[in-house]
Amino acid sequence: MTTITSEFYHKLSNCLCPPGNGVFTVNTAKERKEQLHQTIFGQAVGVDDLWKASLNKLPDASKAIILGIASDCGGGILRGANWGPLFLRANLLENYPELTAFDMGDIRVIPHLLADKYLNEATIANCRKALYQDEHSKYAVSPLTITEDVLHDFYAQFPEKGIFGIGGDHSVSYPLTKAYLQAKKQQGKRAAIIHFDAHTDLLVERLGIDLCFGSWCTHILDDLHEKHHLIQIGIRSSGRPQSHWEETFGVRQHWAKDIKAQGISKTIDNILNQLKDENIDELYVSFDIDAIDESYASATGTPEPDGLMPSEAMDILRALAAKYPITGADMMEIAPFTDSSGQGLAGQEKTLKVGAEISAFLLAEMAK
């Protein structure tokens, strides 16, 4: 049996926590967490020890590794995406028991923090004392920084495995994709990012903050071999035209209105043609649930009308997976308690159903 290095095990056991525990609560959702732990570990007590022991199985586990990042500090419209990892996991376990993905747990999240670079030394020391009981710890304290740090070590030790990140607001995709792209470059592979979203997420900053849900794409472009290896699908809510984003940043976009007008088959052909001569080895799929029309995905911070139907998104994903291995992915912005459509629990359940279907497909592809 292959073993995990003691240094990486120590980092995981300190910087992560059991699945579902990354969302910070006092007593809210206690029953939901216990139910999730019962399903995963067969019991709801002593979970910390069981989870830490399970980390030793990581070397021989599935190629598809689940990581929850229950942070919505990088959002800014309606909060609540920090509940996404807990709720989506429960849905996957209930409805897709055949999945072989290994659940590595959740990033430990202080809900007021985003990235360490925004903090002074005194605050970092205080947060290290809170998280690790050691103000002199070498570990990061903010969710984006912890995620990137952990994943650099993860890919160095397990280059054949991939992370499926569950967010969280879309700022979480910054460390997920950055660590992925840098690892692939070190492996001599060319990777493209397929980004499903109603929004471009190509701001340089938002209200003075450079890493957030509306700007993360801008700050990974230099980690791609070519900027047009970022392909965005489902865009429809933007203060600027498609030409601005493509000409300014060099990316490629497929707006929802054009997908509707030309049909899904033509859209798939266009996407595949954009990838055809680029010598792409692998794909990473970043999926913001608001790429899906609000009639199917209302439990999110920024639901948008005139979006993709779930079947259209699945058709595109199946076509891509038939041509390229999907070796990394994420599902972002599912906010179960946030539904401005008036559908209430029905909207929550519908959003989770769509998110789980897409996630299950991506996990199954990553496990191949």
Structural commentary:
The chain is an alpha/beta fold. The protein has one domain: Ureohydrolase domain (Arginase, Chain A). Helices cover 40% and strands 14% of the residues. The protein is built from twelve helices and nine strands. The protein has helices spanning 6-15, 30-41, 47-54, 84-95, 121-132, 143-157, 173-186, 242-249, 256-262, 264-276, 310-323, 345-366; strands at residues 16-17, 64-69, 102-107, 162-167, 191-196, 230-235, 252-255, 282-288, 326-332. A nine-stranded mixed sheet has the order 1-3-2-4-9-8-5-6-7, with helices on both faces. α11 (310-323) runs parallel beside α12. 50% of the residues are buried. The mean pLDDT is 95.
Per-chain topology:
Layout: H1 6-15, E1 16-17, H2 30-41, H3 47-54, E2 64-69, H4 84-95, E3 102-107, H5 121-132, H6 143-157, E4 162-167, H7 173-186, E5 191-196, E6 230-235, H8 242-249, E7 252-255, H9 256-262, H10 264-276, E8 282-288, H11 310-323, E9 326-332, H12 345-366
Parallel strand pairs: 2-3, 2-4, 4-9, 5-6, 5-8, 6-7, 8-9
Antiparallel strand pairs: 1-3
Helix pairs in contact: 1-6, 2-4, 4-12, 6-7, 9-10, 10-11, 11-12
Task: Give a brief description.
This protein is an alpha/beta fold. Helix content is 40%, strand content 14%.
Give me the CATH superfamily.
Ureohydrolase domain
Mean pLDDT: 95
Identify the strand order in the major beta sheet: 1-3-2-4-9-8-5-6-7
Please report the distance between the alpha carbons of the first and last residues.
21 Å
Uncertain parts: none
Which CATH architecture would you pick? 3-Layer(aba) Sandwich
Q: Report the sheet with the most strands, covering strand number, pairing sense and barrel closure.
A: 9 strands, mixed
Q: Give the helix tally.
A: 12
Structural class: alpha/beta
Number of strand elements? 9
Helix content: 25-40%
Protein name: Agmatinase
Keywords: Hydrolase, Metal-binding
EC number: 3.5.3.11
GO molecular function: agmatinase activity
